[in-house]
Amino acid sequence: MRAAELVRKKRDANPLTREETFFLIEQYTRGDIPDYLMAAWLMAVYFRGLTPEETADLTEAMMRSGRVLDLSELPGAKVDKHSTGGVGDKTSLILAPVAAAAGLVVPMISGRSLGHTGGTLDKLEAIPGFNVRLTLADFRAALREVGCALIGQTEELAPADRKLYALRDLTATVESVPLITASILSKKLAEGIDALVLDVKVGSGAFMKTLEDATRLAESLQSIGTRMGKRVVALLTDMDQPLGRAVGNALEVAEAVETLKGEGPDDLRALCRDLTAWMLHFGAAASSVEQERARYDELIRSGAAAEKFRRIIARQSGDPRVVDDPSRLPQARHREDFPAPDAGYLARIEAEQVGWASMALGAGRERLEDSVDPAVGLILRKKVGEKVERGEPLATLFANQPDRLAEARRWLASAFQIAPTPPPPRPLVWNTLS
Amino acid sequence: MRAAELVRKKRDANPLTREETFFLIEQYTRGDIPDYLMAAWLMAVYFRGLTPEETADLTEAMMRSGRVLDLSELPGAKVDKHSTGGVGDKTSLILAPVAAAAGLVVPMISGRSLGHTGGTLDKLEAIPGFNVRLTLADFRAALREVGCALIGQTEELAPADRKLYALRDLTATVESVPLITASILSKKLAEGIDALVLDVKVGSGAFMKTLEDATRLAESLQSIGTRMGKRVVALLTDMDQPLGRAVGNALEVAEAVETLKGEGPDDLRALCRDLTAWMLHFGAAASSVEQERARYDELIRSGAAAEKFRRIIARQSGDPRVVDDPSRLPQARHREDFPAPDAGYLARIEAEQVGWASMALGAGRERLEDSVDPAVGLILRKKVGEKVERGEPLATLFANQPDRLAEARRWLASAFQIAPTPPPPRPLVWNTLS
Lengths: 434, 434
Fold this sequence. Notes:
Two copies of one chain form a homodimer.
Chain A: H1 3-11, H2 18-30, H3 35-48, H4 52-63, E1 79-83, H5 92-101, E2 106-110, H6 120-125, H7 136-146, E3 148-152, H8 159-170, H9 177-189, E4 195-202, H10 211-227, E5 231-238, E6 246-247, H11 249-260, H12 266-283, H13 289-301, H14 304-315, E7 334-339, E8 344-349, H15 351-361, E9 377-380, E10 387-388, E11 393-399, H16 405-413, E12 416-419, E13 429-433
Parallel strand pairs in A: 1-4, 2-3, 4-5
Antiparallel strand pairs in A: 5-13, 6-9, 7-11, 8-10, 8-12, 9-11
């Protein structure tokens, strides 16, 4: 089998066999197929797409390029959630403890902030002492003891995805639904899960800006995951404005803790309730999603969810007292309000601009090797649809370096739109594919 | 300017500016853009194509990646011919001496045999002593002294083409009309020519199998060459059966010599006459192509063409006596007839199969680093349309290693088609684009 012939085959819109796809991925991971051949194949896939069979084969080949965890000795269903990324999305910090409190096993492997989007690992590391770098053996032990552990990607799981993703990023081949599908699912399925809840974001702050594009990705993820023998649901959720009010690592942890205690912003609460209900539904014998929403409420109300978060934090060497005293989280030295330039109704908050404002303050990173400041970021004082008076604060900025405030202010100036009448309401969950 | 952005631009069907195309080619030639980025760009070009402006910019950038000869101090028009390659195509060996005998300067840089197609350099090297490796200084001196020199590609001319062609070959991106156009023209225009005659082959033995594909390539070559300020004609000529009767290096030299003396097969004579007439037309002040056909006849009849060939051979250290005594060319030790399996009319001779038969005998090469046997090959005893009796020889094979005859015979068995009635005539020149 010659790799160049496989490139030609895909170029000419002929599907590769399972053996051919495995050959390509195995040889590439091993370094026996050079980057230029893979780059040509990626661009051919960008134009020709992959059949569902090819996408499933690719996902499996990438998953099997490294270790695949076998968690079958642990009691309880293994369920995870994956989000395609957005601004202010701290749902993992809430739903993971709730689901674990309900008896599920949640083996969550997460990513870092990049550009305008946040990452779960950076948020967790805002908790003093929290260690996201467990070995796979310790990850498994933590799952047995606590029911949930949250760690970063390791070299051992799906190495083909890391190598391919880096090449896609360099060759303008990121935006391909089957390649995104295989990338997401290969990593998640290597965690040894039985079921997966997917949060596919749509809107100005999301990777997929239109409902049509987001739906195509959600359908692909749902159908390929199902084809691979997992229970999978994909929720299409709004990312046209940031989720919740806090954007920035420690600020988001504080908001997650509030939400775990039954408070927090309405949209964040509602979305966590929906996503968690699907996780619980997949883990339970015969419950409806609606019944599981009630169970979510009860786990919050009883304090079981907050207690599980304390245990997760403690197991990963963090300070669990932040759950009761958020002032133990890193605090920024400077805060400053951003006033409304006009009176009216808040018509839009461009999530992407808010993300860049937060990055400008130091909460995010331009390149993966940059470091982040856990304390900085911003809190939205108004959300879309609310009435504002001129001069009233739309947001509060939290900074450690005052010279960074000017750039953040410039981003915010282009983020808010005020109109004389309230905007039409936009759903939080656009669609649920199961 | 970031190369990845240029890949994205092409991927999204947006044309690159002249500066961007030059950036890409200059940086790639220098090694500052990696192969994987160029491979992604090549595949994007395969799918999106290039505009005429982009194709001309690419041609010029590739041409300027190395030295561009300036032959303006030589008197006379500088005219060359390029063929897209076929089986039995020895026209260069005939038209170059005729055109030089007419006072043109013919700076011909040629290629080698590969796969089923022959190459002018291997044919020339069948002449004892002939040296195709002149330095550019010596090439220029030979042009001044004799009016014609035939050499191989050098590192100094269009290095970007060599690097890009190797990558295209490895990444299934050879078959792209704008990329083929830029590859051919960048090399030819670096020779410092004023005008170019293109012989675009069409048929089973050609790179372009259909008239439609060949026409697209011919139109692209003609229009881009013209856009770059050269006089260019493209003739679409038949390569459904081999050209002439001889296939194999020394055998083809002998047939070229016959043709230079006014004999040789009809199709070869007719095509050389047409191609040369266009070269002479481009080099003359105000002559018609038809007038130049008569001039071709006169240069052959007078012996001026054969005398010029002797001088070209002598200037490049070869033995000019082969022109008068072809038995001085390398001779194969074994010859064997290939008999007709049936009586009737020869309906087809698959040029590609004949090419593989000749390669099986050792006349061609599978990889560029292989060597060829100058003496071996075959002579067609019948051409398409001729009547044959059962058992009458269709071809004579010339071999040095008798154990190679079996494979050559197998190729020939699938090359000939005999039918009860003569086939409809097929034109030699399908179209002329000027």
